[in-house]
Amino acid sequence: MSVRIYHADEIMTAYLDGEIDHHGAKNIREEIDEAAQRSHPDVLVLDFKEVSFMDSSGIGLVMGRYSLMQELGGQLRVVNLSGHIKKVMKLAGLDRLAVIENGGRKSESDQ
Amino acid sequence: MKAINEMKITFKSRSINEGFARTAVSAFVAALDPTVEELSDIKTAVSEAVTNCIVHGYKEQIANIYITAAIYPHNLVVIKIRDKGCGIEDIEKAMEPLYTTSKSGERAGLGFAVMQSLCDKVRVASRAGGGTTVTLSRKISSKGEEDE
User: How many Å apart are CA A30 and CA A48, to the nearest integer?
Assistant: First the structure.
């Protein structure tokens, strides 16, 4: 599990890569938080395109970053969710909390 | 009912083994030719149960986790995940969505909720000080029917 972080204007994008579980989530969460606290972005984008597996640790990861962006007065966006990952997020009701997008198309209509 | 096939693994409660455990179980279940979605569901449920053993049962101390997976007639998969850790005092409470005893603020408290929605049946047997056994049951659709 790894993360690459890019900044463009006021948008910070974290490209997640690999399997998100309790073991892998810790380090990437620290990396994302440090970068966000330094740069205070308006929008934090979590990109799940290269995530091959996710359990409820991923839910914790999104919920925690959501609170962080609330504190920083910014927004969280979660993008490029595959079928399985979207399913796990929906179990937690995260589709109501963060703006979940799929290739620019909002998924709120397909509930 | 007699199992058609069965496997057992024992491994240390190191968090790196979360990936090993779910992959081992999914490799065993793969013999039934499940759909990608069914395999993801099983991997996720196993991952939740194993994480519970590590984080809650053993509280990050290193000890053994035991998994037995069995295949029964009609493609029924039964997976038992067992630890000899601290046990759960109030199982009902522990299974409530969003309830967590974790203080780090990064555990969503959704482990059991995820297991329940991804499996047909989840049974928890535990007593304080006596360890915990989680039994997951999931029926796999018959071969080839739902292939993508």
Answer: 17
